[in-house]
Write a structure and sequence with these properties.
Layout (H helix, E strand, L loop, with lengths): L13 H29 L14 H35 L2 H7 L1 H25 L5 H9 L10 H26 L12 H24 L3 H4 L14 H6 L5 H10 L33 E7 L13 H6 L4 E2 L3 E2 L5 H10 L6 H7 L4 H8 L4 E5 L8 H4 L16 H26 L8 E6 L1 H4 L29 H27 L6 E7 L4 E2 L7 E2 L6 H4 L3 E4 L6 E2 L10 E2 L3 H8 L31 E4 L4 E4 L4 E4 L5 E4 L15 H9 L6
Parallel strand pairs: 1-5, 1-6, 2-10, 3-11, 4-5
Antiparallel strand pairs: 2-9, 6-9, 7-8, 12-13, 13-14, 14-15
């Protein structure tokens, strides 16, 4: 056998393969060079990233998360840019790939960097990232009604884009084209990419652990990174015994005030002026506040037939016939009701540990708090977004069905009331403080009835199975099961009301009676069932009744041609002024309005639009149309029955108002 000499030619079929592998290595090196440019552009997000505060284990983990996410996540974006180039390099002939792919590589990278610069400008202005909806607005804004740029701005933008494309084309030509330099081969390209991937994994693992243990120093950094979807696993960890929810809840209270967060909220300190209070008890003291919130309660299901006790008790209340929830899900709808904010503030409120301004005011005044929920408060993060400053928050109610939990919760509430009254008598009956209560019922959400309960609405299904529902399913049995659950829930509400009356507190208490969101039974004929799947009024319109001292009876705006449109986030400003005596304008702490401003001789609230949110998407709800903004960046315009309407154009003007409202409490 003759030994192969250094001058022996390589097999003919090896050259294309060697060339292709060399192109893949060179183009991977090019992606690392682009990563450096990405990092430079990404420094524009740093002024709007809440950096860790102080010196502690929590803050050190915050710095570690910032470093690993900076390396790993932006490294992932660079790798995603390389992916189509690598695939083309594998498909095209090796010589063609090296000769021509530097041009699309440069155009792709330059365009991506330009998009990142634009996104940083959008984020600085509105605190959300560039998406398909904004792009569609821009492309369809032929008259300049939404965006208005002068010639200098257009020229600067074009020069930036062309300059970045030229720079990236030059880099691609030098690193992966015909003129690829050999010096780049000395870089450990594969090892560097592997390191970036490990940093990405470390980033998500850190977020999982920090989110489960309420480490806000970590979790509040994530929103500033474009295209980042951080991993969470609270329920999984708790189910497997890796997380004690009570311990995490206790830890949360100790880390809530660690420095400046991402929000400037409230915009100015709240001021108290007792002269503005209109709701006082018979003893002249501020009234109590009680929220009766029913999960999945439709506006058309507050009737004497369905809920006889509640309907009779609220006959002298103020009814709002066109009231829209701030969400089509519990997380967003309940949040908007108790915070006075739109749904886009759920995550920053969680991350900053600020909590409901209404609840915080009650805490500052040392009002007793009775916060009860049939479903768990921590299941959808309400403990973080609304109640982070509440010590020993009751997270859940035990029971084997929603109807059972509702009954147990009501019994526990009555026991809490008895204990509160007994404690007050032992201390000083004349110093009895007002109290704030929240009762969140769950039976209609689960279509749940007590065992052996009657079903007055027929024909009625015996249970709800979403997997069996389709466009041709007769909705009547399910539609009747739903009011049957409300009919029996009404008895639990009657217990709460009777207790207030028996102890002389009925006329000293402001009741807020509403739902977190509504429930659809294929009303639109588009095969939508339940909630959290569109923003029609079938899923967002809920009852709202205010009843108590100083609140007039009747139907809101009954003298107007159309009922005024009110929103969940209007409730907190109303209570803060008329019950707690906060004299600030609502814009200092809320997106809502004072629903009782007619007492000050002002016109009724009538919202031009209501911003409603789901877990990822948003809907701008108007009387005649809905702008559905998808979390992935897409958008669509519908009428009230989910029929497509003309995109943007007519009626697009409110969109900019919505975006300005969404950024109200972010620092400039």
């Amino acid at each position: 056998m003759t030994a192969k000499t250094p001058d022996s030619p390589a097999p003919a079929n090896a050259r294309p393969r060697d060339s292709r592998l060399r192109y893949l290595r060179d183009s991977a090196t090019f992606s690392l060079a682009i990563l450096v440019l990405i990092w430079l552009v990404a420094t524009r997000y740093l002024p709007f990233t809440p950096l860790p505060q102080g010196v502690s284990a929590a803050s050190l983990s915050g710095w570690a998360y910032l470093a690993t996410t900076w390396l790993g996540h932006y490294g992932l974006l660079a790798q995603l840019l390389w992916l189509p180039l690598g695939l083309l390099g594998m498909i095209l002939p090796a010589r063609s790939a090296r000769r021509w792919l530097w041009l699309p590589a440069g155009i792709l990278a330059g365009s991506a960097l330009s998009a990142l610069i634009i996104d940083s400008l959008v984020y600085a202005q509105y605190r959300f990232h560039l998406n398909g909806f904004m792009l569609s607005m821009f492309l369809n804004d032929s008259n300049g009604e939404i965006f208005e740029f002068d010639a200098t701005t257009w020229l600067l933008g074009a020069c930036t884009l062309l300059g970045l494309i030229a720079l990236c084309c030059g880099l691609a030509y030098r690193l992966s084209g015909p003129a690829a330099v050999k010096r780049a081969h000395r870089l450990p390209t594969g090892k560097l990419h592997a390191l970036l991937f490990l940093m990405l994994l470390a980033s998500h693992i850190q977020h999982i652990v920090s989110d489960a243990h309420h480490n806000l120093q970590v979790t509040r950094e994530a929103p500033a990174f474009p295209l980042l979807f951080p991993a969470t696993a609270r329920d999984f960890m708790e189910d497997h015994g890796w997380l004690d929810a009570r311990t995490a809840e206790a830890a949360k209270v100790h880390i809530q005030n660690f420095g400046a967060g991402s929000l400037a909220y409230p915009a100015v300190p709240l001021k108290q002026d007792d002269d503005v209070i209109t709701s006082r008890g018979v003893d002249g003291q501020p009234a109590n506040i009680l929220f009766l919130v029913i999960d999945s309660w439709r506006a058309d299901r507050f009737t004497a037939e369905t809920m006889p006790h509640l309907h009779a008790a609220l006959a002298d209340g103020l009814h709002f016939p066109d009231h829209i929830s701030g969400g089509n899900s519990t997380r967003t709808g309940f949040f908007s009701l108790l915070s006075g904010l739109t749904a886009n503030y759920v995550t920053p409120m969680e991350n900053d540990g600020l909590g409901s301004v209404l609840v915080n005011q009650a805490l500052q005044r040392q009002w007793p708090l009775g916060l009860f929920s049939s479903a768990s408060f921590n299941g959808v993060g309400l403990d973080r977004s609304l109640f982070p400053k509440v010590p020993d928050l009751r997270l859940r109610t035990l029971g084997d069905s929603p109807a059972m939990r509702d009954r147990v919760m009501t019994t526990d509430w009555l026991a809490w009331q008895a204990q509160r009254r007994q404690t007050a008598l032992q201390q000083d009956a004349h110093a009895l403080k007002p109290w704030l209560g929240v009762l969140f019922y769950d039976a209609p959400h689960g279509y749940s009835l007590p065992r052996g309960a009657s079903t007055p609405f027929q024909p009625s299904a015996t249970g709800m199975d979403y997997l069996t529902l389709g466009p041709d399913t007769d909705p009547t049995p399910v539609r009747n099961l739903y009011p049957n659950s409300l009919y029996h829930l009404d008895r639990q509400l009657a217990r709460v009301i009777q207790d207030l009356k028996e102890h002389g507190e009925w006329d000293n208490t402001v009741l807020v009676v509403t739902g977190d969101h509504a429930q659809e039974f294929n009303d639109s004929g588009k095969n939508f069932w339940g909630h959290n799947c569109n923003f029609t009024r079938y899923q967002t319109q809920v009852p709202l009744i205010l009843r108590g001292p100083g609140i007039p009876a009747g139907h809101y705006g009954s003298q107007l041609p159309l009922p005024p449109v009110t929103a969940h986030y209007d409730v907190v400003p109303t209570l803060l002024r008329h019950v707690m005596g906060i004299s600030n304008p609502p814009s200092d702490y809320s997106m809502g309005h004072d629903l009782l401003r007619t007492l000050d001789h002002q016109p009724e609230v009538d919202n031009e639009w209501v911003l409603s949110g789901s877990y990822q998407d948003f809907g701008i709800i108007q009387r005649d149309r809905i702008y559905a903004l998808e979390g992935t960046g897409g958008y669509a315009v519908y009428d009230g029955d989910m029929n497509r309407r003309q995109a943007l154009g007519e009626g697009a003007n409110p969109v900019m108002k919505v975006m300005e409202t969404m950024r109200r409490f972010y620092p400039n």
